[in-house]
Amino acid sequence: MFYRLKQPENETEFRRYYQLRWQLLRAPWKQPEGSETDDIEDLCFHIMALDKEEKVIAIARLQFNSGTEAQIRYMAVSPSYERQGIGRALINTLEQRAKKSSHKKIILDAREPAVGFYEKLGYRIIEKSYLLFDEIQHFRMSKTL
Prior knowledge:
Structural class: alpha+beta
Oligomer: single chain
CATH class: Alpha Beta
Distance between the termini: 29 Å
Order of helices and strands: EHEEEHEHEE
Mean pLDDT: 95
């Protein structure tokens, strides 16, 4: 299966990136468009996967919480592309970016169904974190780089 990873670089690419983020992480819970972004988007590292037709099929963001800690947020892979190594490739890219900027640790808040995926990549549960939209349990996870 062909895909390639790239950073969104212009308004059109970011629009497509945010559209998939909204479709996968907000729309199923009837959240409005615009709820998929926050105030620090411009300060973060964004990555997306494109298929051979240049369709955005996966997205993820790395934010920098401190000089030593980074955080993975808004990660999702389109359901028809799951279990094909794309999520692992996104995580590897984010980890390399964090290491390059001298970050020593990555944290994330995983939705309950994704905990096993992150555990396979070396992340460990720290604690139960929050309940999103009154139904999606999240777990704070961490990995030392």
